Amino acid sequence: MWKYIGKRLLLAIVILIGVSIMIYALSMLMPTDYIDRQTAPAVANGTMTLDDVTRLKEIYGLADKSFFGIVKSYSTWLVGAFTGDLGYSFLFGRPVSTVINEYMWTSFILAFIAFILETGISIPMGIRAAVNQYGGYDYTVSVLAMIGTALPSFFLAALLMNVFCIQLGWLPLQGLTSATKIFAADAHMEIFLDKAWHLILPITVLVLLGVGGLMRYTRTNMLEVMNSDYIRTARAKGLPEHTVVYKHAFRNTLIPLVTMLSGSLPGLFGGAMITETVFAVPGIGYIALRATMQGDIPFIMGYNMFLAILTVIGMLISDLMYMVVDPRVKLK
Amino acid sequence: MNDKPKGTDANSSADKKTKHNKYTDISGVEIIAEENFRVMSPGRMVAKRFFRSKLSVIGLCMIIFVFLFSFVGPLIVNVTWGYGETQVFKIERISSMVTTASFEAADGKDYNYYDESQSHVYFKAPISWDHWLGTDTSGFDIFVRLMYGGRISLVISFLVVFLETALGVLFGGLSGYFGKWVDQLIMRIVDIFFCLPGLPILLILSATIASIDAIPPEHRIYYLMGFLTFIGWAGTARLVRGQILMLREQEYMMAAETTGIPARKKIFKHLVPNVMPQLIVTMTLGLGGIILYESTLSYLGLGVPFPRAAWGSMIALADPSKGQEILANYPNMWVPAGLLIIIAVLGFSFIGDGLRDAFDPRMKR
User: Fold this and answer.
1) To which CATH superfamily is domain B47-81+127-359 assigned?
2) Cβ-based contacts of B292 with chain A (< 8 Å)
């Protein structure tokens, strides 16, 4: 097993280097970057010359856009990345890793609560749908789940905002804290409640979008298990249906479920770009979208690599979990 | 509707009226056979199973509706009303805004303020007989723009899915058939593409294209398609490879081997057609995903450039960061676009699910 993990880790490094080359090449292709945007007014009114801009870019290693220039600046970045230095974000003026660490936790709380709710809602729903296959409940839930997966997040967000924030006025429209309220420094409870109040809608959106896929996945795997021989044996023994479903069938459905859920790591830490942006929740997704639009290359690199690393770790964990929950599986 | 046992289609479709067929056997004796079964081609069996499911038929109707709406609709509009997506209508109306405020002042009296201001508005016309869904912030007819937006979404999704499949079949086929280092190389590239974060990469690419002045805005859509293909082909390649690895070991391939036909023919004539059922299912299910991606990019302003319509950019009008007015007061501008996206995506996933069940009843999800 350790040999397998070692092999997978080596492979992961190869993949990550490939990913970084690709992202670096793509972001260097952007014809204007943050420096251009920031210096454009100064160049236009004559306080800076184009030479100044080029010199500024040279400091950051972004001036030379020829093939060798990109290779050179990429290798500088790669060496830095291996030592844990992802460079400075132009937009924030702080190290990329600090910025990611700072904004990641908001996203994590948002995604984690949504994740708990999703699993709590969709797994029982999936089991019930599978047990009553082709029944009324199954059809209703399956169609609703499909509608959930067909919804664009920004549209769902707009609908919910229209109803709950504008028509009913129950919930705040955007942001993470009320701009109009001033809290005392030690009013932790109030601040917490205020944030929770702001997060209700974003979490609702994430849950509604995520429940469908997980529910259908549970249903499929549950159906597969319910058709196997040992379920028939369990029934033939005269076990109550409840025991058959929740003890014999569900425990075996857990195998694919656990592997799938442990693969959702990037979703937990990586931020929900669109949902966060629509609700203006200052999480990592919201920040990353802004940075991408402004051409903040160090941040783009750092963020995308962060996502890629999470994906790789997620895949590794889900493979290992597969072995943990199913002793028949031997990894080689 | 779905719980009948499968695989008995040949019998269950027996015609009520029995046919009499005449056969002549070797000795020349004429035999009159009573035929109480009908031979069905695999294609017809699939079609039959597909149409037996209510959901797939509903999905098909939804997609036909969206297609007619976005491809035939503009033609009808052109003939009857005679304008397109970028026709500006200035419809003058007076919009009055009332503000009231009442408060108790320091002198202990209650003050009530009432203020009514009127302004002339030319855009954002309400729903009327001439403009079924009103006009938007630029004075374009929303109903007509929905049609053109649908064109963009559907065309992009179909082209991207075909390109993706072509690339996926090519690389997956090569990888699965040749194995060894070819397989290793292609699969590592596929792994890299799997780890690329999709939306951020699309954003980088689209922002790049949007900022290059040399590329005319109307060409942006082609680049967009290229990017979506770039992000999506790896999944198809992996699927095709897996299937081909399995098929390669089957006996009919041994037979094909002995005939000595070239590898190209073996891959594309004997292996790939057997992957087609799975491919068609993934293609159909993929269409919806691409529509969602495209509308997300349009929502962020990185899709089809402004005067052209796209569903995503129509919903973007309701973005509360740009002011709540439209979100609150003009649902006619953004709700229909969202509903159309849902109809299209849902329709494709209903059809995809129906096809999957129809192609292989064992693969039931």
Assistant:
1) MetI-like (1.10.3720.10)
2) 150, 152
> Under an 8 A CB cutoff, do B341 and A150 touch?
yes
Q: How many domains does chain A have?
A: 1
> Which residues numbered 315-354 in B keep a CB inside 8 Å of some CB on A?
315-316, 318-321, 324, 327-328, 331, 334-335, 337-338, 341-342, 345-346, 349-350, 353
Residue A191 structural domain: 103-294
- Is residue A330 a part of any domain in this protein? no
Q: Note the residue count of chain B.
A: 365
Distance, CA of A90 to CA of A332 (rounded, Å): 45
- Asked whether B122 and B111 are in contact (CB, 8 A), the reply is no
Contact A271, A283 (CB under 8 A): yes
Please check whether residue A285 is in contact with residue A271, taking contact to mean a CB–CB distance below 8 angstroms.
yes
Q: If you ran DSSP here, which 8-state letter would residue A270 be given?
A: S
Of the partner residues B191, B200, B208, the one whose CB lies closest to the CB of residue A288: B200
Quick check: is A308 in a domain?
no
CA-to-CA dists, residue B22 to B15, B167, B351, angstroms: 18, 50, 41
DSSP bridge partners of B24: B30
Rg (CA), chain B: 29
Q: Are strands B30-35 and B93-104 parallel, antiparallel or unpaired?
A: unpaired
Distance (Å, rounded) from C-alpha A265 to C-alpha A80?
25
Q: Cβ distance B172 to B238 under 8 Å? A: yes
In tens, the pLDDT along B195-209 reads 888 888 888 888 777
β-strand B30-35 against B19-24: which pairing, if any? antiparallel
Nearest CA in chain B to A223: B365
ipTM for this prediction: 0.85
- Provide the shortest C-alpha distance from residue B118 to chain A (in Å): 23
Locate all alpha helices (DSSP H) within chain B, ordered by sequence.
9-12, 42-52, 54-67, 73-80, 142-178, 180-195, 198-211, 220-248, 251-258, 263-265, 272-299, 311-316, 325-329, 331-359
What DSSP designation does B18 have? Answer: P
B35 φ, ψ to 5°? Answer: -100, 115
Average pLDDT of the segment spanning B344-359: 88
Min distance A300 CA to chain B CA atoms (Å): 8
Long-range contacts of B324-327 (CB under 8 A, 24+ apart): B324/A166, B324/A173, B326/B137, B327/A158, B327/A161, B327/A162, B327/A166
- Nearest Cα to A153, choosing from B196, B349, B345? B345
Residue A285 in any domain: the answer is: yes
Does residue B9 or residue A310 have the better pLDDT? A310
DSSP string, A132-183: TTTSHHHHHHHHHHHHHHHS-HHHHHHHHIIIIIIIS--S--SSSS-SS---
A33: confidence class by pLDDT, cuts 50, 70, 90: low
Per residue in B4-44, pLDDT (tens digit) is: 444 444 444 444 445 566 666 666 677 666 666 667 777 78
CATH 1.10.3720.10 domain locations along chain B: 47-81+127-359
CB-nearest partner of A311 from B195, B203, B208: B195
